[in-house]
Amino acid sequence: MNAVQESLPKTTNKLPWWSLSTERDTNTSPTQQKDGTERKQISFYRRAFLPRQFAHRPNYQTRTPIFDKDAQSSDHREDKGTLLYKPNEHFSKPKERSFELHKSNSDSENERRFSLHRVSNPSRNDSPGEDRKFALHKALNSKTNQYSAAAAADRRPSGAFSAAASSDQIIIHTEELAKDIDDKKNIEIQSPIEKYEYKNGKCSSSWCKLPDCRCIGSDIPGELDAKDIPQMVMLTFDDSINSQNMGYYRTLFNGTAKNPNGCPIKATFFVSGDNSDYDMVRKMYKNGHEIASHTLSHRSPTTWWADAGFDNWEHEIVGMKQRLNEKSGVPLKEITGMRAPFLQVGGDAQYAMLKENKFRYDTSMVTGYLYDNKEPPTWPFTLDTPPDSKTCSLTPCPTRSYPGLWEVPLIRWYGSNRMACAMPDACTIGVGTKGSYKFIEDNFMRHYTTNRAPFGIFIHASWFGRKDGNLQGLVEFLASLADKKDVWVVTVSQALDWIQKPVRLSAINAIESWSC
After folding, report:
1. What is the C-alpha to C-alpha distance for residues 55 and 17, in angstroms, rounded to an integer?
2. Per the database record, which ranges form the NodB homology domain (predicted)?
3. Which residues make up the CATH 3.20.20.370 domain(s) of the chain?
4. Whole-angstrom distance, CA of residue 392 vs CA of residue 378
5. CA 486, 489, 297: angle at the middle one, nearest 5?
6. Which of 283, 488, 494, 497 is the most buried if burial means most Cβ atoms within 10 Å?
7. pLDDT tens for residues 162-186?
């Protein structure tokens, strides 16, 4: 299969949600034109996600991708169009759509044009005037031999849906497409999500084994006793890094707080592209902190992320990964994780994107009870089997299997009123430094005194300015950990290093990434 790359933003370098294959469809055959030449029917599989604009309309169940070159955004090049999703209320599930290919008379030395017309089908209940034209342009390029579709770089639904029908088109470069057409082979458009299977049945330790697979559960990896393993504390921060929050980070990471081996504590920063200072990001990376992707735009509303689709997720997450590499010098191989904005997961589109782009982990799912019932927390797990609604409580959740892709869940915290919150920012806590300190310590002890699942302090730097005592409360809590020789403050990646190859405290030096 040939890569469709040119349509993607220059920072991504990955396939968009559709790809071109040349498998023959035995249900279609060449037909005769009036001039006696053959024309070939082409199968077009509609695979798209319902955009936010139609999410509240249950009758929009089938989505037809439409390429509109006239709908532009600031990211678009002038010769590129936007991939739109045209809802069709006539069907309850996606169906095959057939087209006829017609060669245009507008040939030139460097370009030949083809138009793609939908074939009438009396079995379909289409509204009058629904026939569309798709213009295919073949350009000969001496430097590349790859397919490319001229849809918008970010594929964001935009522009007027009703107006899009008048200018539906894609542009495809390379000689290979023309050869496929000449050979009368079929072109199928298919989502990369389709390659990942639905997984029925529960995960079992009989086949799911470390280091690359772990079932959802509160059991300790390696069947070790809680007293023999480190209590890991993962300190993470979401959103941009800039002058407004660097002062907080200097206070927290001044070299005073250290792990039992004498190494300074480190954190994971899920960096978004909206208002980040990339020189400061570079400095945090040089100081040993982990840098991960938190999207380019962090755009609103929250619901947009639920319906974003594969390409939008790829543009946002992979695009941010490449920007961090280009502007802050963070090696691509070290940016292995992500967190979704607003903790709004995107279902199979998000997780297929992560798997396709070889990410190691996601940390967006919220789990845990809505009240403190003293149950041991859940350890990180892989998505070899889809999570249940208890583990992934904010929909849409993945429904397919993504072997080896780790999920580091956000274990709910509980405030002074015993009500749950996904992140400490949203909990009710006591007054001043003492109130903040007690709030953090109480939640820490739920992990430390049970199964020692990694304790996540997942916050935004804005929390420090929201209430007096929050920053100092965290500083004092981190300082108190120095008295516990079995507690380590680590990055998310460092925590996964231990989980994949668990060792006792006595052999902790075997974990290379924990040294300094």
Report:
1. 20
2. 230-349
3. 235-449+456-483
4. 12
5. 155
6. 488
7. 222 222 333 333 344 445 545 544 4
